[in-house]
Amino acid sequence: MDYIRTDANGQLVFEQSTEFLHIPCCLYGFHNTETIVGKAASGRTVYCFQGKLDLPESERRCKCGKRMHINSHPDITLRHLCFGGDLSCLRFPHVQLRCSGCGAVKEQFISFQTPGHMITDALYQYTRDLLALQTYTNKQVAEITGLGKNVIKEIDKKRLQEKYTIDGKKLIKPERKAKYLGIDEFKLHDGHRYATHIIDMKSGHILWIAKGKTKQVVYDFIDHVGMEWMEGVEAVACDMNSDFQEVFEDSCEWIQLVFDYFHIVKNFNDKVVSEIRKDEQRRLFEDGNIDAARALKKTRYILTSNRSTLRKKDEEAAERKILHKGSDLFKTEDVVRKGGHEARYDELFLENKLLFTVDLIKEKLADAYRMTDEAQMADRIIDIMDICEATGNTHLLWFRNLLDKHFEGIIAHATYRISAGKIEGINQKIKTLKRHGYDYPDDEYFFLKLFDMSRQGYVRNIPSHRFSD
Ligand SMILES: [Zn+2]
Predict the structure, then answer these.
(1) Do residues 242 and 381 share a domain?
(2) How far is the CA of 175 from the centre of ligand 1 (A)?
(3) Average pLDDT, the chain
(4) Could you say which of 150, 361, 404, 410 has the lowest number of CB atoms within 10 Å?
(5) Contacts of range 380-387, beta carbons closer than 8 Å, 24 or more positions apart
(6) Interval between CA 74 and ligand 1 midpoint (Å)
(7) Same structural domain, 290 and 372
(8) Which residues surround ligand 1, an ion (CB under 5 A)?
(9) Percent of the chain predicted with pLDDT > 90
């Protein structure tokens, strides 16, 4: 084995040694006698530190008072820290003791092993530190540490349980009181079941997360935080299509329900704009106007964008804005913004009066949600309801009723000004986690991971390695 040291000038000196390569961590009672360099299945270099572990006389004492004898000592291998891209492990005989008096058996205690894992505390801590950074996915942490995916998940789940639960059984109470809450639901991995989350609209922290989308989820949350905590809450934002509002009317009548802009636009786009477009397409097909029907199929983006967005794109086109830079090296050309967005929009609406109405309503909704006075906002919402009614269209009549039924909670927005940004942010995070496969198959882990992600945004530190205890 080559033994490496530095001389007085800081130059590396290689000496032939049969003894050891020094281990950069305090492993209490372990004596390294030989180091073998091997290759892992992945092709990475593995330093295997062989040696033996002290067996103190006190450990040989049985509960009954007799001295235990060594029954066997099978080799044990524990994964240890990495050196750059190389892996390491420790191997030593693990003594099994037996009492000839009472027949008791026990294993030699390894002070540096992580209970439940075949790894050292040092590697466990390093892995936890990497996971706490929230910079790497589990797959990346597995690659860095050379540990298996399941081990990484177990370590991460334990970390999250310690951080956010009491004994893994109950979620911790919110860190501070919240003035505004937001409630939203999302689909789980199988696409059929739902889960609901409740967030602090100021910090964006998820405070509660549970399977299902029934009222019980909210009752459970109120139970969890207690009435005194709830008394600090002034308003709750949620989707109009939920029945969560009944819970607050029932048990916290001082709380104002607010229907935010994000959800109202989502309802309008999904249930009105898309439906009208489908109807129109059907009508054009039936009239034999196949080309027009096909064109309409590609217009969802245009129809669901704001006129101001389209205008901005056209302005960019006029300035020849470069969307994608070309390269001389790879012989690609610049991709330049194409114009005509707004013109295409106008053309579509000229072809169809209903689509024009949809356009108008969307602009009026955005305008209404800019109001800071309830009476002014009420005027604008009533105006929208009148327009919907005048069309006589089924989908727009449905939307009119939706506004009517939730009128108070809609105009309350003028007073409470709850921004929907945090709800949208959480939705994005759910999508990111799903894309990385965290939502399958362990719901509890997925929920804790979301809990953690919503608290992201602290200053990131490089993990500190524990070299000694
Ligand atoms: Zn005994």
Answers:
(1) no
(2) 50
(3) 84
(4) 150
(5) 381/407, 381/410, 381/411, 387/357, 387/360, 387/361
(6) 22
(7) yes
(8) 62, 64, 66, 99, 101-102, 104
(9) 49
